[in-house]
Amino acid sequence: MKKTLCMSLALCVALLCCCAALAACKPDPMKTAVQNGDNYTIVCSYDAETHVLSAVQTLKMTNRSENCFDEVKLHIYANQYREDAATSVVPNAYRSKAYPNGASYGEISFDSVKVNGVPVAFTVGGQDCDILSVPIDGGLFPDKGAELELTYQVQLANAHHRLGYNDNTVNFGNWYPVLCHVDNGNYTESPYYNVGDPFVSDVANYDVSFTLPEGYLAAATGELTEATNEGGSVTYRYRADAVRDFALVASDKFTKITDTVGDTQVNYYYYADKDAESSLAAACGMMKFLNEKVGKYPYSQYSVAETEFCYGGMEYPNLAMVASGGNSYREAVAHETAHQWFYGVVGNDQITDAWQDEGLAEYLTYLYLDETGAMPLNRSVIGCTQTYVTYVDVLDRYYENVERTMRPIDGYKNDSEYVVFTYVKGSLMFNTLYETVGAGKFWKALCNYYENAQFSVAPSAQLIQCFAQTCGEEAANIFTNFIDGKEVIGKVTD
Ligand SMILES: [Zn+2]
What we know:
The chain has two domains: 33-345, tricorn interacting facor f3 domain (Immunoglobulin-like, Sandwich); 356-483, Neutral Protease Domain 2 (Neutral Protease, domain 2, Orthogonal Bundle). The protein has eleven helices and 23 strands. The chain has helices spanning 2-25, 29-36, 95-98, 276-293, 329-338, 355-372, 377-398, 415-437, 439-453, 460-471, 473-483; strands at 38-47, 52-62, 69-75, 107-115, 118-119, 123-125, 131-140, 145-155, 163-165, 170-172, 178-179, 182-183, 186-187, 204-213, 217-220, 223-230, 233-243, 248-251, 255-261, 264-270, 301-307, 313-316, 319-323.
């Protein structure tokens, strides 16, 4: 007996050692994402008099597809602010909010493009002068890399938008050339849409040195590693690993307050907010809630910036832009913070499946408001149901066969329809899941999704699969019925 026991003990010890070794071997997803990510180095300087940003951007990239590319393609969203752009940056209904001082235009212009140190004949094309094509001599074969060097200027518009200057802040969102996402071996050159957030990007690593006039503070993606004052300017250097974009908001009016959640420093930059502590608390509260419920936030820094913006807010990795003076300001802070998990860590195709991050971020905000006692969940759900039913009822009066599917963003007639079907109906879909499978399984499924899809651009099928595996096929049917427009909501029938 004793011998057997000893052998069992030895076996147990050996097994434990094996398990420990296996655990140690399990690759850290963040490290893997950093290793597999392309590397952007941007040195840029903003002139607050001319509103021009001058930049030199180096991009070390690898072709991870199975195709050989003759050209590397990058989105240049900054060109959407052109006067002759076919698609304006905002729908007409938002023009006065986006341009309170009248029409204003911006663009990106390139001085030179080099590949591996050699100047090349690049082209600016795409559907709306929104794609930069960089030829690769001899082609870029699978697993081969190239180093691009882009020298360019971005003229900012006087616009309360993702990219633009205003009386209080300067927003730098979607400002630099970013690699097109590769899907099925091809670059996706999807154009800009003025509905939704029409961006799909892969995680990459960034080293950005951003020079601003002295006295400017900046909220940005990544960790601030250096701040140098010289000749009336200040240069902030940021290191951001495994993030899917780099954005920044600058202002000479900012005050900064800080708190910590887990291993993350949370910063709030504001200039008009009369109750800044409560806004910071909303960001921290939401972070703590999602850290516990969904999974740990993997970055060391997160900033919320009060700014001028024609919508409620906009999410970027480690950064949220929130519109100053908005009606539901702290709800917007919570919503944008939820995007840190869904859009930021777990990406999705925001053009084809906007509900995947928007519906979820909105519903997680309702759950957070319920948890804190700020707003009972059933009141949020009743509000959404009424909005949806009223909207569809009105459409039914004027049109035949009103579309009830959750569509790609270019399938919506206008911004209102996009909001109703993506945020409102999206929230109702997640609420139906929550009520049907119960809170325990709902959070378990979301944890699995977060763990398995982090740092990727997750297809909606992966989210549905995670729920089906954890909660049964019934969950998959709920998704399908809502997406296909078969679900009966309120008194609306198909
Ligand atoms: Zn959102």
